[in-house]
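User: Hello, can you help with two protein structures?

Assistant: Certainly.
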Amino acid sequence: MQPDASVSGGIRPPSVVLTAAGQRAKLNEVAKPKPEKKREAASGIWVDIASDPSEHDKQALREALFAYNRAQAGDQHFQELTIWLRDDQQQIVGGVIGSTYWGWLLVEFLWVDERIRGRGYGRLLLTAAEREAVRRGCRHVCLETFSFQAPAFYEKLGYVAFGVLDDFPGRHRRHSLKKDLQPTSSEGGSA
């Protein structure tokens, strides 16, 4: 992998690799890792800390993990879930981005423009996502939020904390929350 001169400023720091012996080396300083033990030399395996990984390589890793997961737990029935909140000019003023799989809704992002917060739009978006998840056959929701965002908002809507990371970032905390969904008589597909 050659350094790409097209990155901002025309210079990109070279990739760094860890040799099988655990030594850091710049990619342009080693054509191939030089293990210190013969056993390692035979393996031809080394750790490569990629500063700019290709989409192809990332997708290859995802697909390998998905194949393993399917073999262990069955098809995940993965579907993206995106719900927008728009104003009269069709501008996005809020939304939910997540996905459904293995009977869970994973909320990755929920955002409402500051100008319209406190008017019930966050609840509206989350409720719409939950209803769609139930329609897809989900039984649970999982999400994360920071202490400076909205843990109390989610708790008021029935979410329960199952994990907290301190010092993430700094004096703040990262909260992991979940909620069991109630199926409705109009429940549809599978997630």
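That covers the first. Now for the second protein you mentioned:
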Amino acid sequence: MTLAVRSRASVTNSAACANSGRSAMTRMLMDEALERIEAARVQGETAQTRELLQSAVVILGSLRTGLDLGRGGVIAASLDDLYDYMCRRLGADGIASLDEVSHLLEALRTAWPFMPAEVRTPLGSEQRDRNWRVA
């Protein structure tokens, strides 16, 4: 599956996921980032690898933007730092950072259902959900 086809599938999945809740959408985005990191690992050092890593960075940036630092407190602040760290590692170190970032993201994805509700459903999620829906 090409990156363009995967991106369209991701938008379709995002629209479906928006209707099932923010927590499910977050996990879906984490899955997408992990898939792209794994695809980059398989590709090796190529132009396609850089494209896959950049798309993973964009997804991590979206996850970071979705945090409500005011309501989420220290946990949201720590997640913000972790997303920032993963983005920097993928951007600067590329292929050398794949194992570390995928392990961090997988651990976070596994722990996500156990996060406090303030972290999983930021900012009056009804308003946010309306903003995330794809027409």
